[in-house]
């Protein structure tokens, strides 16, 4: 049996919510048909599903990649553009429908570069890409792939 990666199997009496979780762990509770609420140890929540007001799992993956890119490069952008710079990051994909997977991701950081000449823009692009290459865990995981294991656990079994 694999060790628990996100909880230690101690459950509350009223639900299957873990009482404690490993660092960095996340979990989701079913709240309806094809509807879950995702949680982290910091108290954050996100609605996951296919309906109004919910992110699909694929959308969450895209948001994770996009924001991992900008969080990794935020210090580089702030140094070049100023601490209060505004930015929006987006991510789109090419989906292989037959295999039910994404073939590629395209991340785009949109920010005002009008204060930089072409040389400074080029240097900034190199530094942003370098920071992302060093620090974006989500990007590294997607590029190199990661093993996935699945186990269905009965909380009443020891």
Task: Describe what you observe in this structure.
Residues 1-24 are annotated as: Disordered. This is Osmotically inducible protein OsmC. It holds the Pfam family OsmC. Residues 1-12 have a biased composition (Basic and acidic residues). By secondary structure, this protein is α+β, with helices and mostly antiparallel strands. Helix content is 32%, strand content 25%. The protein contains three helices and five strands. It has a three-stranded antiparallel β-sheet with strand order 1-2-3, with no helix packed on it. Strands 4-5 form a two-stranded antiparallel ribbon. A hairpin with a 2-residue loop joins β1 (26-32) and β2. The longest helix has 25 residues, at 57-81. Residues 1-6 and 8-15 have low confidence and may be disordered.
Write the layout of secondary structure elements.
Elements lengths: L25 E7 L2 E6 L4 E5 L7 H25 L5 E10 L4 E11 L6 H18 L1 H8 L14
Antiparallel strand pairs: 1-2, 2-3, 4-5
- What is the rounded Rg? 20 Å
- Please provide the count of β strands: 5
Strand order of the largest sheet: 1-2-3
Termini separation = 11 Å
Per DSSP, what share of the residues sits in E-state strands of 2 or more residues? 15-25%
List the uncertain runs: 1-6, 8-15
Overall geometry: elongated
Biased composition (Basic and acidic residues): 1-12
Region (Disordered): 1-24
Biased composition (Polar residues): 13-22
Protein name: Osmotically inducible protein OsmC
